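Lecture 7 notes: from sequence to structure.
We start with the chain below.
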Amino acid sequence: MPSRALAAETWSGTIVLADGLVVYVGPGATAARHRHDAIQIIWSPDRPIVLGAELGSVITHGAIIASREYHHFEANGAPVAIVLVEPAGRLGRRLNTIAQRSPDLSELNIDVPLPVTTQPTVVVDWAHSLITSITSDTVRPGRDGVRGEVREACRLIDARLDDAPPLADTASQVGYSPRQLRRIFADEIGMPYRRYILWRRFRHALLAVRDGADLTTAAAAAGFADSAHFSRAFRQRFGLTPSEILPLLTVADADFVDD
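Predicted C-alpha cells for the same chain:
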C-alpha cells in the first residue's frame, strides 16, 4: 500500500492549478516518502523545514527535488509554498539540473517572501518570480525548446483524453516512428508518453469537477474506468484522494506554460 504523501487533516491551505503548474500555499505539515513526475519546489522563508531526499537530509528554508526522485519532509505547521512544475522544455531541464546538483535552495541566497494573497493569478506570477530567482534567468516556462511534432502529439492527447490514442497512432500522425516518438517525447516533455497521458487526465478530471461535474462523470470524461479508478490512481501518485484535494482547489485564469 502506498504511503500517504500528505496528511489531509493538516494540509488546509489553497491549491492553485494552472496549465503546467500546481502551487500549494498555506500551513505545511508532513509529506511521507513519495515521488512524481513533476519537479517540486518547497519554499518556507519564515521557518526551516526538514527535507529528506536521495542526496541525504537537510534542515533548510527551501528545496528543489528533481522529477521522479523520492523525497519526504516535515514542515511543522510553518507557512509554506509547494510548487509542482511540469518537467517539459528548457525550463524543466534547467530545474532538474539544479535539483540534481543540490536540492538545498538556501545556498542560492534567494529572497522571495510568500505570496500575500492566494488569488490565483497572483500565485502564478509569484511562482514565476520564485523560479526566476532559482534559475537566475528568465527561461520561458512550458514547452519552449520542444519541437513542433511533440507539441502536436500533446495536442492530440489532450483532444482524446477519454480514449487516448496509442503511441503508434500519434507517431503516425506527427510523422515519426513509434520508437522515435517514444524517445523524443520522454526527452522533451520530461516524462514517458503513457505517464503524460495520466498526468493530463488527472488535470482534466479535476477541472471537470470544478466546473460542476460529479466525480463519476469527470472520471469517465478523462478516460478513467470509473470514479474508484480515478481516486485510486490519484492517491497512488499524490498521496491524497481527489475528494481531499478539491475543497482546496482554485484554478488560475492565466496559465503557466507558454505554448
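Points to note: Strands lie at 14-18, 21-27, 30-34, 39-43, 49-53, 56-60, 62-65, 71-74, 79-85, 249-251. The longest strand covers residues 21-27.
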